[in-house]
Amino acid sequence: MRHTILLLAATAILGCTDPLYDISSGSHPIGFKAVQKAQSRTKASTSYSFDVKDCGFGVIAYNTGISTWNSSVRNHPNFMWNQQVTKPSTTWQYSPVKYWATDYSEHISFFAYAPYSTNGEYGITPMPNNSQDEPYIDFVLSNPDNMTDLLAGQQIDQTGLDANGKETGITFSLSHLLTGFGCKIKIDKTSIKEYGITTTVYIKSFRLRKGPALFAKGRYYFAQHTDSVGHWETQSADLSAQDLDLTGIIDITRDPKETNNDSLSGNRGKYREVLNTSVKELFQKDKKILLIPANNSQGTLHDGDLTIVIDYDVVTLDRNLADGYCIQHNPLELPLPAGSLKSNTNYSYTIEIGANNIDIRL
Question: Do the bridges between strand 345-353 and strand 40-41 make them parallel or antiparallel, or are there none, so unpaired?
Answer without folding.
Answer: parallel
